[in-house]
Write a structure and sequence with these properties.
The protein is built from twelve helices and no strands. Helix 1 crosses helix 12. The chain starts with a helix and ends in an 11-residue tail after the last helix. 25% of the residues are buried.
Length: 269
């Protein structure tokens, strides 16, 4: 009874802020303006398949880049002393203390044709290069904004790996490379999967980054949904249908990726 009382606020929170919004999204996705059941809006989502493909592709690229940067960085962090770890983690989290919109706007200044990067390249008689309003700029914005969400879960798992296990691997003949791939990597997979989820989900649904750094020619799913709810082409039912399809896609992709998150024992070879 006491446990139920303690859990009741969380259950109420989940019902009000998770279950009810999901029910509303599903309701508007399968009804028209008069509340009649229809599949028209869900079927209309198919015409936006190129935008879905672009969003998934760019989100995957950003997630992979974040993983390639975050994993070795987290591994290095676990090997330094505690004081240095705290300092480095503060540096990683420092950009997150600034407003998300301001961080993205700063990249507009850096990547513009007359921005700081092109100005510096001009001294070398290079450029100017078109960096703003490109898919590369969108990916860069995703990586910059979401990289801490990849580093923190991986680091939090790696730092808890028992040092005795690493010493045992060394005693059994594993060199540094084998220890990394045969011991550290399997034990850190839960952190990797958490990081992938925390980066991929906001990346695939972002709209501020694509609007500010990608321009009108790099429309993503988030932009499309925003246009249906807040733009001139106001269509709440279509926006709900697009949101519902996006949720299904994300769930399917997360289910597939979670298949790689196994609890197999570490094998030293």
């Amino acid at each position: 009874m006491k446990t139920k009382l303690i859990a009741s606020p969380y259950l109420v929170w989940m019902v009000v802020f998770i279950l009810v919004p999901l029910i509303l999204v599903a309701y508007f996705a399968f009804t028209d303006g008069n509340g009649n059941f229809t599949l028209d809006y869900v079927s209309d989502v198919a015409q936006y398949s190129p935008i879905f493909v672009r969003s998934i592709w760019l989100a995957l690229i950003a997630t992979v880049i974040c993983l390639l940067i975050a994993y070795p960085l987290s591994y290095i962090l676990t090997g330094i002393n505690k004081k240095s770890q705290s300092t480095m983690l503060m540096i990683v989290m420092l950009p997150m203390w600034m407003n998300f919109l301001l961080r993205t706007y700063a990249w507009m200044t850096l990547l513009g044709n007359n921005g700081l990067i092109n100005s510096l390249l001009g001294f070398l008689n290079l450029g100017p290069f078109k960096m703003l309003n490109t898919e590369g700029a969108v990916v860069l914005g995703m990586v910059y904004n979401y990289l801490p969400f990849m580093i923190l879960p991986i680091y939090s798992v790696m730092v808890k790996i028992d040092k005795n296990v690493l010493e045992a691997a060394s005693d059994l003949g594993c060199n540094a490379r084998k220890t990394l791939f045969k011991v550290v990597l399997p034990l850190s997979l839960p952190g990797v999967m958490s990081g992938i989820t925390m980066v991929f989900v906001p990346a695939i649904s972002t709209f501020i980054i694509s609007r500010m750094l990608g321009g009108g020619g790099n429309l993503l799913i988030g932009d499309l949904i925003e246009m249906q709810f807040l733009g001139n082409s106001y269509n709440m039912n279509l926006g709900a249908a697009i949101s519902l399809v996006l949720m299904v896609i994300v769930l399917l992709l997360m289910t597939i990726m979670n298949q790689f998150n196994t609890d197999d024992d570490v094998v030293l070879m």
